[in-house]
Every structure is written in C-alpha cells, then in structure tokens.
Amino acid sequence: MARKSVRKRIEELQDPIEEHPGYEETESRVGLWGHPLHAMSVAFPVALTFCTFGADALYWLSGEPFWAKAALWAAGTAFLFGLAAAATGTAEILLVPGIRIRAAAWTHFVIAVLLLALLGANWGYRLYGWETAVLPYGLLLSGFNTVVVMVTGWHGGALVFHYRLGTSKGS
Ligand code: HEM
User: Packing angle between helix 65-95 and helix 139-161, nearest 10 degrees?
Assistant: First the structure.
C-alpha cells in the first residue's frame, strides 16, 4: 500500500527543467559531418591512462628502464589528449542548451577536471626523474588514475545512453 503511494507521488513529480525552451535541444554541435568530436577524442586519454599503468606495472615486475620511459610518454600524452578531449566536451556543454541545463553534464565536467589534474600530476612528477618516479608513487597514481578514468568514461557514456545527450535524436 505504502509502496503504491510512493510510486504515485513519483509519477506526479515534474522535472524542474522540463519547461526550459532548450530542453529537447541536445544534439551535438561540435563534430565532423554530424559525428561528435568529443566521442572521437575521449578514446585517446582513456587508452593512454591504461597504458601508463601497464608500463608502470611492467617496470615494477621487470626493472627494465624502457618501461619507465614508456610510462613517461604515456602519462604525458594521456594528459595532452585529455586536454584536447576536454576542449571538445567544454565546447559541447557551452554551445548546446539542452546539455548546458542538465546537472548531470556538469557532474561529468567536475569529474573530468579532477581526472585532468591527476593526469597532469602524474606526468609532471615524472619530469623530475622518470625512473625513480615509478616506485611507489608513480605506480600508485597511475593505478588511481585508471579508476578515475573508468568513472569518467562510464559517466560520459551515461550522458549519451541514459540522457541521450550529444546524439542526433530523431534524424
Ligand atoms: C572537462 C571537460 C569535459 C566536458 C565538459 C565533457 C562533456 C561531455 C558531454 C556533454 C558528453 C555527452 C556527449 C556529447 O555531447 O558529446 C560527454 C560524453 C563523454 N565523455 Fe566527456 N567531457 C569532458 C571531458 C571528458 C574526459 C577528459 C573524458 C575521458 C577521458 C570524457 C569521457 C567521455 C565519454 C567516454 C563520453 C561518452 C561518449 C560517447 O559514448 O559517445 N569526457 N562528455
């Protein structure tokens, strides 16, 4: 009985932003021939963050300096490609009214900025000694960064698949 009334009350609730004129305007505006640039660019920082962790782990296991150097390059390129992905995402959030008014899009922004700070720290720390930086803090940081990049990517996917942001609805 109590369950029924809760459901009824939920049905009666209205999304406070539903009346906004741009509510339905969620199509991507930053793309090439309608293909969103943000979706294309996020693959690089995601993959390079995992590569940094992999190279650190291989250095830990083998002691081979090659892997520490590989981790330095992977960490640097993860950060730089992360900035590029953030530029396309930021353009999208500012230009598209239906994306700009949704709190979930700003949550993604906050998580992504945290990720960028961590990626930058992971690279910057290694510039002061790429081999000595790996154990233990480089490895710990890149392990943590893989978790944060997974959360960021999952949340970005939720924006597309749950809220249908950045898609070409109806066309
Ligand atoms: C800091 C600025 C960022 C903003 C404002 C932002 C904003 C957005 C928005 C609005 C979407 C919905 C789709 C679209 O409109 O293109 C999205 C999707 C997504 N974002 Fe971000 N993003 C940012 C950074 C990042 C970063 C650094 C990553 C990961 C490294 C990331 C991962 C993703 C993923 C995986 C998707 C789903 C793409 C798809 O499946 O099509 N975002 N983001």
Answer: 30
Q: What pLDDT, on the 0 to 100 scale, is given for residue 1?
A: 53
Residue 22 resides in a domain = no
| Ligand 1 pocket member 109 (CB < 6 A) | yes
Q: What is the pLDDT of residues 142-151, one digit of tens each?
A: 999 999 999 9
- Whether the model clears a pTM of 0.85, i.e. scores above it, the answer is yes
Distance CA(53)–CA(16), nearest Å, equals 42
Range of the domain at 43: 35-161
CB of 140 closer than 6 A to ligand 1? no
The preferred substitution site among 25, 28, 29, 42 for testing ligand 1, maximizing ligand atoms within 8 Å of CB, is 42
Task: Look at residue 167 and tell me if it is in a domain.
Answer: no
Which residue owns the Cα nearest ligand 1 atom 26? Answer: 112
* Residue 156 Cα to ligand 1 middle (Å): 5
E-state strands within 5-163: 31-32, 35-36
120, 148 Cβ separation under 8 angstroms: no
Is residue 84 situated within a structural domain? yes
96-132, pLDDT tens digit by residue?
999 999 999 999 999 999 999 999 999 999 999 999 9
How many domains does the chain fold into? 1
Residue 146 is assigned to a structural domain of this protein: yes
